[in-house]
Amino acid sequence: MNKKLSLKNAGTFLVFGGPSIFAFAAVVIIPFIVGLYLTFTNWDVRTGDSSLIGFTNYLEVFRDKVFLQQLWFTLKYVFFTVVIANVFAFFIALTLTRGGRGEQWLRTGFFTPNLVGGIVLGYLWQTLFSQVLPYLGAKYGWELFQTSWLTNTGTAFWALIIATAWQLVGYLMIIYIAGFTGVPNDVLEAANIDGAGRTSVIRRIILPLTVPAIVICIFISLSRSFLTYDINLALTKGGPFNSTELATYHIVQKAFLSNQYGVGQAEAVVLFAVVAIIALTQSYLLKKLEVES
Amino acid sequence: MNANRRILSGLRTGFLYLLLFAFLTPFLLIIMNSFKTTQQFFESPLSLPTTINFKNYASAFDNMDFMQGFMNSLIITGISVTIIIIFSAMTGYLFVRYKWKVNSIFFFLMLASMALPFQVLMIPMVMLYGNMGLLNTKLTLLFMYLGFGVPFGVFTFHGFIKGIPYELEESAFIEGSTTLRTFFSIVLPLLKPVFVTLLVLDVLWIWNDYLLPSLVLLSPDQKTLPLSTYTFFSSYSVDYAPLMAGLIMTIIPVLIIYLFLQKQIIKGITEGALK
Known about the structure:
The complex is a heterodimer of chains A (293) and B (275). Chain A is mainly alpha-helical and 293 residues long. Chain A contains twelve helices and no strands. The longest helix of chain A is centred in the N-terminal third of the chain and has 31 residues, at 65-95. Chain A starts with 9 loop residues before the first helix and ends in a 6-residue tail after the last helix. The relative contact order of chain A is 0.13. Chain B is 79% helix and 0% strand. Chain B has helices at residues 2-33, 38-43, 55-63, 66-97, 101-113, 118-131, 138-161, 167-174, 179-190, 192-208, 211-216, 225-233, 240-274. The radius of gyration of chain B is 24 Å and the shape is globular. Chains A and B meet through helix 1, helix 4, helix 5, helix 6 and helix 9 of A and helix 1, helix 4, helix 5, helix 6 and helix 7 of B.
């Protein structure tokens, strides 16, 4: 079993590892390396010319006011989506782990938006925001809904958040439920006997004991919302006037529509760095709060 | 006291069902209005449809070329999920049972790659595969899904196989079974619970994926369901009634699977996330 890899058992390596390692290398490792190289060139898709230009692409990224604005827009969007989705998921999960009747059905129900892909989800909410809500606004004179939310930058921002959070809630809820089920019953009973109220049980027992679930949920919602593309495409198409382009949407436009591959890739690398820094910081900070039960 | 408690818990359940109803109104509104004409929808989007007619479904079915999109999605999802699961199970086994240096290097690279967002890879990938003239075929897309799906698959199987006692395989080896045969007849049957987890997560991912197929599959006859949903609606004036019927039709296949597998799906998500 601990034999060295030699010609004799190279066959085992090729049969068992060959297909997956080959595919992994061909779509992940090589594109990653080529991608880093690409950010230092001025590769032109039409002529095929390419030469090394150092950090010019990165400088361009930081000089590009539009990209920086969109990055800021993305950060705000991610922040609100993560907070809203996690708070709702946490409390829904909390009410659905008490062993009441019909819990299974309720969980199943709250999860359904996750069966739907971003494109369908985007069109669904587009229909609601551009037709149904304005109808309500006109009928009952609610000023908030008189014009479509998608035609105004400020409200389109919230429309994006609502659509994304609506989907995420059910997914995160499942993980929170798993986390809550891990809280030992005797600790909860002891707290009950000691006469602890519901809020202090949540604050002092459930919260600290479910830190691992919180870390995972924040990580998942962070990375999912940072990379939002299809909801953005179907809901607002970046409009009005490109004001709701999230970072990924912007990168796709830059690379595949304006053929600026080098700059687009540099933007993708910057986005990756931002996501990585935020995700690592949050899990480091939260891990410090973790306790043993 | 007891009666009070029962009333309270009844109220709580009632409230939760109400909340769920509100939560699912977007779906309900779309279903309701998919049976009306666009005119009726504009006039009263909140009223129940007076007649149930499937005209919108028929026109959406033709306009978005539903059958073709459905078949493409079915083929792509079916094959990619199958190869991801089989090959990652084999590689996971290789990585657990053979402590070669190459194995630990690739295992580490796969773990590290799981933090890598697709956006960092998409531009060079399209460039490389485009230069080789490999875009616009299902085969390339299947290969890419294998490459992207393998890290998580290997990681999941790795954790599970580690817990299987080696003695089971040892006796097979003593009786002269080959590694391949031992794997398929002894190890593979034990991996069933992990299969279900991966199956669920990968089906949801690949069936609903938009960005990757939109970059790889360029001609109309290759389009998957999410792509045909998009082309159907990217015209200038949106005809809402067939649009809603189209959305419902796109959701139905997954919904059917969900109704049958909901317990496993929820279990799959839980295990997938906590791994």
